[in-house]
Design a protein that fits this description.
Length: about 725
């Protein structure tokens, strides 16, 4: 059943059931008072519970952060966050923003009315999908409905064959009748998705022209422009998603930019998109579906940045929040990009996206016993209402947070003392739900909860590393999010990862990622030819045409020519296969031997086999058009003595490999200078996270205030 379409509201960007009770809370750290002439960069990441703000002083490299509750209208939360950071809008040189607005709109199906016009006989392509299921064996599990109900999918007589020959032109009488229906229904957003239009867009363009004649104010998206690729389900669904999100993202971006400029901001509002770049509010109106993975991309970008500052080109990102954990991989300084992703299974969005695996493992994930009597952890979550049992807001089922606070790894206060945790309630829930049914002591039950959570995350890391041909032993683990640093060392031990890195501000690291990106557009075009018979002159001409389109898009976003950069990629596959791999190529291709060599090498790594003697074909070409921004640079601090400052206290903590609790020193991270070394066992607390340093581990603060923990490998 499809939710009824209605007028857009930014209330849809936030699940109001998850609004926190502590509406008055504003969390600040390290106030930054800018003087006249100084400018700052501000990044904002809107989550379901909190809006995180990261502020970088361009002159000193100093960073400070702020948190405010996410509001019903997310724009209010953004402006509240900037205010909480003590930053004036006219001091902001650059503002970038990651948002779940588009993601939530697709999940809830709350967007303005829209229609799809397609080839007669293909009305149900986006509902039939590929015939696969998220859970193959659960035949009773309902699939999510398409973004447009059947009554909102209209058809017209037309046909183009596989080679691009127009067999039947658009029936003009039918087309004008459809225009009459659309006008009568007051629809202003239409997706035109014709079969084989990726190879010849003539009929789609004619249908668009007729609609514009009959309804001058209508907004039309053509599948041949949005995603000119084969496979109609993927192309149709991407175009439909882009159409329904365009007014949502466009209105949001325009209003946010307007309110900020009214307050004195003079620049563009930059919105983070799935590919790891940003687009202006104008660009978001045209390619809104790229915002559907806005939030998770920021964490992956920041993780790579932190790892490279610490001296690691290979890194695995562990972004553990309250409900979920996002995991990504960076090899040789490059994040992995995928074209195969979705917000909900069965409805692909084919814009390039940073490859991030999300699992239901967070601080609020529930521990429970399944029908077979096994201990499970997540994906169910306590959310922010009622939250973990220890929050004393009505929660009854134990969570990872409850286990951590009971074992002493978390203190009794969070968020700078504004949230008090009830350890007794956590213990009772652990005993009732896990301890008694499994015959475990309360401490062993709490340890078991965390071990299952760690096992779930370790399995996810294996999927993004070992499954792709990468050995975790060659990587650093970057642990962040509110809960990542609690589990980082335990996870590294399970996976034999040699080092764990914790950013200076783990809880707002995703917001930092928004400061590290360029304006990017990804253009694709089908180009099917055997490598041996490819016309290189024609191939280069196609690339130049795509680069010119990219140049026009960047110019539309006010990017100067000297700040434009273009990269070319060829998607290759073995003849007869349909899965392909994207291979970078030089600006002017003189031959394809090196590209073919790279293809065989990458195919062997990712799929564990290659066939150097088999014929290879090109199936698609891509251009990434980039408008370069000045990157954020963190302040570099001189290294001081290894001796850390005195701990602020102690408490008994139970660690994984110890048989009893150890009286453990507690450190305030704000007091740890560059060069300081903290010997485990220890717990390091800060405003937005807590770091567990088990016995035998040393936490060292580097010149960028990144904490590095070497993890000895077991024999």
């Amino acid at each position: 059943m499809c939710l009824p379409a209605r007028a857009p509201s930014r209330q849809d960007a936030v699940d109001v059931r998850r609004r926190p009770r502590l509406d008055h809370v504003k969390i600040r750290r390290n106030r930054m008072n800018t003087s006249a002439g100084q400018s700052v960069r501000v990044a904002c990441d809107v989550g379901g519970t909190f809006t995180d703000v990261c502020v970088l002083n361009e002159d000193s490299g100093e960073i400070h952060v702020a948190k405010t509750p996410t509001t019903v209208d997310p724009i209010d939360g953004v402006l509240n966050g900037i205010d909480a950071a003590d930053v004036a809008l006219n001091d902001i040189a650059l503002f970038s923003h990651g948002t779940t607005l588009a993601t939530n709109a697709l999940i809830t199906r709350r967007f303005p009315p829209a229609l799809m016009v397609t080839t007669k006989g293909f009305r149900d392509v986006i509902e039939i999908r590929r015939g696969t299921r998220d859970d193959l064996w659960d035949t009773y599990k309902e699939m999510a409905p398409p973004y447009l109900a059947r009554r909102d999918r209209l058809s017209v007589s037309e046909r183009v064959d596989y080679a691009g020959k127009v067999i039947e032109e658009v029936d003009e009488k039918e087309a004008r009748e459809l225009a009459r229906i659309i006008k009568k229904r007051n629809i202003t957003n239409v997706a035109i998705c014709f079969v084989n239009s990726f190879v010849n867009s003539k009929n789609e363009e004619k249908m668009r022209d007729i609609l514009l004649e009959e309804i001058p104010n209508i907004k039309v998206s053509l599948s041949s422009e949005i995603m000119p690729e084969i496979f109609e389900h993927e192309r149709f669904n991407t175009t439909v998603a882009n159409t329904v999100l365009s007014p949502v993202a466009g209105d949001y971006g325009a209003e946010l930019e307007g309110r900020m400029k009214t307050g004195g901001y003079k620049g563009e509002v930059l919105l983070l998109h799935s590919g790891g770049g940003v687009m202006t509010a104008k660009g978001a109106t045209q390619f809104a579906a790229r915002l559907a993975a806005s939030g998770i991309a920021a964490g992956a970008i920041a993780s790579r940045f932190i790892a490279e500052l610490a001296g690691y080109k290979n890194s695995i990102s562990l972004d553990m929040g309250g409900t979920s954990t996002d995991i990504s991989l960076c090899s040789d300084g490059e994040l992995h990009i995928t074209n195969d992703w979705h917000v909900e299974y069965g409805y692909p969005i084919r814009f390039p996206s940073i490859e991030v695996l999300t699992i239901g493992a967070g601080g609020g994930s529930l521990a429970w016993r399944d029908a077979a009597g096994a201990l499970r952890n997540g994906p169910q979550s306590a959310g922010s209402e009622p939250g973990p049992v220890c929050y004393d807001r009505g929660g009854t089922e134990p969570t990872n947070c409850d286990a951590n606070v009971y074992l002493g790894r978390l203190g009794r206060k969070l968020a700078g003392g504004r949230v008090e945790l009830n350890v007794d309630l956590a213990e009772k829930a652990i005993e009732r739900v896990i301890g008694q049914p499994f015959g475990l002591t309360n401490e062993d039950a709490a340890l078991a909860i965390l071990k299952v959570a760690n096992a779930n995350m370790a399995d996810a890391v294996r999927l993004v590393s070992l499954r792709k041909g990468y050995d975790p032993r060659d990587f650093a683990l970057v642990a962040f999010g509110g809960a990542g640093a609690l589990h980082g060392v335990a996870l590294a031990r399970d996976l034999h990862i040699p080092v764990v890195l914790v950013p200076p501000n783990p809880g707002v690291t995703s917001a930092l990622g928004c400061l590290l990106v360029d304006i990017t557009h990804d253009l694709t075009q089908m180009y099917v030819a055997k490598v041996d018979g490819a016309d290189l002159g024609d191939l280069n001409a196609k690339f130049r045409a795509m680069e010119e389109e990219g140049r026009e898009r960047l110019a539309h976003e006010d990017i100067a020519p000297d700040r434009m950069m273009f990269e070319r990629f060829i998607d290759m596959r073995y003849l007869g296969q349909w899965r392909s791999m994207s291979i970078p190529v030089e600006s002017d291709i003189s031959d394809l031997k090196e590209a073919v060599r790279k293809f065989h090498q990458e195919h062997g790594r990712e799929h564990n086999y290659s066939r150097p003697d088999a014929p290879v074909e090109i199936c698609r070409i891509q251009v990434r058009a980039t408008g370069l921004n000045r990157k954020a640079e963190l302040a570099k601090h001189p290294l001081g003595p290894k001796e850390p400052p005195a701990p602020i206290g102690t408490r008994p903590v139970r660690f994984d490999e110890e048989e009893q609790r150890i009286e453990t020193p507690i450190y305030d991270r704000a007091s740890l200078h560059a060069g300081a070394q903290v010997q485990g066992p220890a717990v390091i607390e800060q405003l937005d996270s807590t770091i567990v340093v088990p016995p035998g581990i040393t936490a060292e603060v580097d010149q960028y205030l990144i904490i590095k923990m070497q993890v000895p490998q077991r024999s």
